[in-house]
Specification:
3-stranded antiparallel beta sheet, 3 helices, alpha+beta
């Protein structure tokens, strides 16, 4: 699809971004993740990104973007467990340790990342 095609397509929503922020809210059933397979419990809060801007017609808009989770890459070294059950156990322990460290660091960003880890 060409950019010019997208501009003329009625199903495309265009927004010039002015500002971004996020907040934590209870998950919306059918839209957000509501169960953490990592912790085996219900998710209480999920991060929601707010995008403030204007449309090409000049209308102001606030877009609430669900399922945008913070992430980062951690390489899995060759000397770590490769047997599936042992690797899963190791990864679960590592993820819980990362969640604990982020929660201990405090702040809304840490809480948002911990809530999204499910």
């Amino acid at each position: 699809m060409q950019v010019s095609d997208a501009i003329n397509n009625d199903s495309v929503f265009s927004l010039r971004i002015v500002a971004l922020d996020y907040y934590l809210a209870p998950p919306v059933q059918g839209l957000d993740v509501s169960f953490s397979s990592l912790e085996g419990t219900a998710v209480d809060l999920v991060p929601i990104v707010r995008v403030f801007g204007s449309t090409p017609a000049g209308q102001r808009a606030c877009l609430h973007l669900h399922q945008a989770y913070p992430y980062f890459y951690v390489p899995y070294a060759d000397d770590l467990p490769i047997e599936p059950a042992e690797a899963a156990h190791y990864l679960r322990r590592m993820a819980l340790a990362i969640n604990t460290a982020m929660n201990m660091s405090g702040g809304v960003a840490a809480a948002a990342a911990a809530a999204a880890a499910g």
